[in-house]
């Protein structure tokens, strides 16, 4: 049985396989979907609401012919209120479904769930912990857009202290050759020391920089993140931080022609709408890629011999 | 790409086609449904809850073989809280689904959504704006029940100031020949001047009347609406207005034998239960028609050549 | 048309048939599900949240090829707020779905719903009233685990005053031969007099006992229930009651080798995790059986001639 708990569980070879599978899934989705997971049921168990992530997983399951049982807000509605442990909830729900997608507010929840589940568990975010499918779709998007993840220079911009995606992505990028990272953040939310320590150990070159304009000129990927209002002591301080780094036409004009702008979304003003029409604005394509990555993961966790054969056949069709 | 944003977008010829398609859909539903939209996904994106409307759309989609991703209360749960614009939400969700059904509390939301969506958008109510599928099912029900919408006399009764359905229906009826409308409302919620102006421009005969008993004797359609408690300054005033027009056995006894009673539902006392068993009580059949109209609209927005061919074939079978 | 409103509507012969059907359903589920209810729609109408029960019904419907429209919290979201009666809601929703699963906080709600519904209604719990599918899965589990429900000694332990499942199960057990019941509860939540009166009328032997250790040695079934915090005047009193009867390794050591432990779940400390690995801990298998019982009931309410034929064929395959 195969669980998806952390982006770190994938080595570079597995990432390559996954991204190839995601490409096959894109082809599948564009051609009317598949019956690969016909008869299978996915439980979307969201202890905190995230309509976007839930929809992405549910869409992925349905594109493969599967069905979905779903709760928008398990914390409010479920047996949790009656004092039931996560472990008991998972034991029961794993007898209703063939796979569980779990979103939870506590770090480590998905790992605890996997220990007792009778079916595969996919981590759809565990508090300040991990959100592996987001990291995987980020990497997949870079590869699709630029052709390779080796030899790139990426800037990560915004709230680098609390931004879970930024940490995961930094760790994952160390698997690739000759990656350079520029961290650009307001003073009160820098990249944590432990991430820098890790990158140094791995021999990844990184810089902490202040001027987005200069950085924009030299990078292949500009990875923007939202400044999270709820982190700041006052509205005034939030606005100062939030307004500091904004991608507008000026920034765009400085960027390389082949470079791309990514964002895990939702955004809240840090990328102006005037940027959306530029072909380098890749953030909506990035969201779309999330469905293909999740289709690939679902097929991987739930697929059987028939699934493998179908994947192989499709791979040949696509050439 | 075809959006359904307003009832007004349909001319009389298109309405005829739609109602014919809805009849085919009724036949389809009664015979085990169809695979017309097999492999398609509808997103039900409800920023305010409306279980009834949501269920009607979801049922319509499923009767045609499609699948559904759904949120009961997007305003509370979604990225909207994090400051995301409706436009961004729609851009992302339109990469998860093949069609979006949008319920929103702001006038014009569906039109804004359609501008950025990569897939068709159906307006399922935008605040005080429009609720086109309700108007379409109202008209379809009149045609089914009476055989024609031309040459009818219809009374609209209840809260005519705030009742969105009454305004839309008035506008739509001007497309038909020789329609007469009697508006019957408590003094504090009359039909707005702008609706009257429109009807005068279009040459539609209308009356403002006070006595439901007299009106009941002469109309072909009695369209009741709920007095909305939340509109009134005090509970006492509400009760005075709410109690003024009630359909009971007395009113029924005065009505023509071929006449029908409609109501967009939910009702709250303005039609007594004793009326339900009378064959002229058409309001539950009206709700059922909502599924057929929505099946027709979904097929129209999502169908392809195969769908057209199947519709044509079914049309011949039905004679 | 067949409704499931009360466990009492099933006589012993019907229970035997139902349990046979549930076994066939278990076989079906283990072999990729069925298309028996293809094209059918179930409405899960939950006026109070119960993720577990809802998931179990939805999973059952999907395992049989059916589709689901669902609301997690109809009381908060639906037309009920606008003053609509349950009867009107049911009339409308029964035109959207082929079957309604109703959870409601008022006793008798399911029976009221069945009176006006155009489609079968299954009671998924009506307040302090009944929860028939829970009782049926309890009985089914005993039969599966022990081979028979006749000649058993069962202990019911915990909150016996408010525990709805314990009352229903007591009534249902009177249908079987030579059943003995031991009631074990804290002083402030004993089994009600009316249940005892009923058992006396039916000639069922029962005891009220105090010492779980002694009882554990002699029973075939230990049916634990949760002490419900909200019932007690103070936290201290709750803890006293809650802590009084706990199944741990000591209790387990005293139990017969063939005996089983059941629990309707969720639990909140009255069975220690150390018990879970023992083969006599049957409560998670019991939850799984809920899906098979619900599949059987759905097939019974919605199935046609083809369904009957398929059931018969499967029955032969299974021997």
Question: Can you put this structure into words, describing what you see?
Answer:
- Three copies of one chain form a homotrimer.
- Chain A is an alpha/beta fold and about 325 residues long.
- Chain A has two domains: about 150 residues, Aspartate/ornithine carbamoyltransferase (Rossmann fold, 3-Layer(aba) Sandwich); about 150 residues, Aspartate/ornithine carbamoyltransferase (Rossmann fold, 3-Layer(aba) Sandwich).
- The first copy, chain A, has a five-stranded parallel sheet with strand order 7-6-5-8-9, with helices on both faces. Chain A has a four-stranded parallel sheet with strand order 2-1-3-4, sandwiched between helices.
- Chain A is globular, with a radius of gyration of 20 Å.
- The model of chain A has no long low-confidence stretch (mean pLDDT about 90).
- At the A-B interface, helix 2 and helix 12 of A face strand 2, helix 3 and helix 4 of B.
| Shape descriptor of chain A | globular
What percent of residues of chain A adopt helix (DSSP H or I)? Answer: 40-55%
Task: Assign the CATH topology of the largest domain in chain A.
Answer: Rossmann fold
- Please outline the major beta sheet of chain A: 5 strands, parallel
Function (chains A, B, C): Catalyzes the condensation of carbamoyl phosphate and aspartate to form carbamoyl aspartate and inorganic phosphate, the committed step in the de novo pyrimidine nucleotide biosynthesis pathway.
EC number (chains A, B, C): 2.1.3.2
InterPro entries (chains A, B, C): Asp/Orn_carbamoyltranf_P-bd (IPR006132), Asp/Orn_carbamoylTrfase (IPR006130), Asp/Orn_carbamoylTrfase_sf (IPR036901), Asp_carbamoyltransf (IPR002082), Asp_carbamoyltransf_Asp/Orn-bd (IPR006131)
Family (chains A, B, C): Belongs to the aspartate/ornithine carbamoyltransferase superfamily. ATCase family.
